[in-house]
Specification:
D-Maltodextrin-Binding Protein, domain 2; five-stranded mixed beta sheet; 11 strands; globular
Amino acid sequence: MIAKLTRRTALATALAVMAAPVMAAETIKAVVIDGYPARALWVKEFTNFFIPEVDKRLAEGGNYVMDWQESYGGSIVKPKGVLEGIELGLGDIGIVTTIFHNSKLPSQAISAVTPFVAADSRAVAKAVDEIAKEFPTMQNEFAAQNQVYLATGVVLDTYQLFSKNPINGLADVEGGKVAGAGMNLRYLEGIDGAAGVRGGLTDFYNMLQTGLVDHAMLWPEAAKTFKIAEVAPYMLKADLGAVNSKTITVNKAYWDGLPEEVQGVLQEVAVLYRDHVAGIAMDRAAESREAYVAAGGTIVEMSAEERAAWAAAIPDIAGEWAAGLDAKGEPGTDMLNAYLGKLKEAGFEGVRDWSGAMTN
């Protein structure tokens, strides 16, 4: 009799377990912000690549589901306001345009202070992100802004110079006003009479159209996306270099509240997104130049001699950058040399040696 009861009890228990509902995955809300519109390359790929990849990886574990709430184009913050927005908790995850914040994020300018070295977004993105993870400086700068660093990205194949009027070399830039977004304005200091005018990518069209500036430094994919050929139909192919300008960060309090599994997936996917966007930037470079020409643009290639002359005329912005960090107790010089070393290993030495081995 006891044996029968035991068998019946075991059977009842098994049936109860089979009938019990599978435990539901925990839902985690994530508010993603950027001030740029959804059509911008990096924003579009956050929607099309980053989010689906995170969802896919979390689905494999079955423990968590993300409730994504995306807010772009200025509905929560303007392009320059993402850093502060994440700091204040207006968003949980943000795509920070670092070139707007040289004072708060000085180490992020490492590729901007080394122009004419690498016009390859994949190589620059990888090198900068490795520096950020090998040296504590970059992550500490974001920590001071109440956020956690995930990965730095490069969304441009290389800066070029776009103009309202025919342009063939530096002589055509002399005395002109040039739109730029940050450190790249310093590239103009060696050009006679050229004046930099700070602006954001979404401002460049109007700045050119209204005559506020004569030229603008941006890249072909952005020129295509923002229809720059309509107001600046001449491009000087100077290959100033690829520059890291986007970093994915997470609000610190939000991050601390995430399960370790979710944190790990976000970190992994951020690196994949870094390489994915950089690859698209490179893959679309030729297509974007063709689209620019099809829209009425003319491209003139700058001579090697002119590029070398421009590079040599720029002040030692790399040395100044490194010295500024060194003075704060940060390893600026070591970071600079390590970064240039990584690019050299990848096959990029550049027109000018920014390590200081070559003088102006």
